[in-house]
Prior knowledge:
- There is one protein chain.
- By secondary structure, the chain is of the alpha+beta class.
- It is built from four helices and 16 strands.
- It has helices at about 1-25, 60-70, 75-80, 280-304; strands at about 30-35, 40-50, 80-85, 90-95, 105-110, 110, 125-130, 140-145, 150-155, 155-165, 175, 180-185, 190-195, 200-205, 210-215, 225-230.
- Strand 3 (about 80-85) and strand 4 form a beta hairpin.
- The longest helix is centred in the last third of the chain and has 26 residues, at about 280-304.
- It is globular and about 50 Å long.
- The protein starts with a helix and ends with a helix.
Amino acid sequence: MKKTIAMAAALLISCSAVCMTSFAADETKVFVTVSNDKKDLVLIQEPITVTDIDSDGKLTINDALYIAHENKFEGGAAAGYKSSVGQWGLGLDKLWGVENGGSYGYYVNDKMSMGLADEIKDGDQIQAFIYPDPKDYNYYYSFFNAKKGEPVAVDAEVPLTLTYYTFGANGDLVENKLANAKITLNGKATDFVTDADGKVTVKFSEAGSNYVSAASDSVNIVPPVYMVDVDAALTTSTTTAQVTTTTTSTTTTTTATTTKATTKATTKASSNSPKTGVKGAGMAVFGLAGAIATAFALRRKNEE
Length: 304
């Protein structure tokens, strides 16, 4: 009898572990960066757990930005964010509290998005921005060749390359290396400047979470972001750290216009929300039922 109970307990513990693993595997987390109309970075790679807040059956940019505002904007999404369905589909009416008639942009993994209804996946980097002048679209998306690096030691040097997009004759995106851009570190000016090929090596002298951005006197750019943790406990025999590059695409798209979708004032997922653990939970419950049935069968056999 005791042996049967022990076996049942072990099965239940194992099934609970499967349940927890299934939920974790189905969680979708993205990283959201937002810059305002003054070109200030107001969110920097903020981790956001995405659920289907607008109940459209998929996880989208709209869901991620709504939840980011709900979590981080004073007054929540009701005060800082608005989306609507218009002529061109789902797009923005308000971003970080600013309503400017639709002069916004948003990219996923450094690729221009067609609209807020574009689907997203776990680990995506979303960058949304407000045009400083709503009537001037000469505002160019820029990005480093990496979004985040592995932890480095104090005084490590990291090589980066800065690129910005312009539009070609056919409306396609064209990559350009940005020369003479001034590098900022944690929001402060530095002496680091990109060369003719957009390359620069940045030295990190302060422990903790560090972020790099840039500004240019010749090109009006959306502030790029690179993040790295500097660990005072780490030592290295070299002063150069490696970064993982980000692959970009020059797929032709158009600037997203404003849209209006009715969103619920909650960040809970609807019953048909994908990637929120429903499938994993079902498998875990099935496994739990099997474990219980097995335990009772063993107990009965033991008693007989």
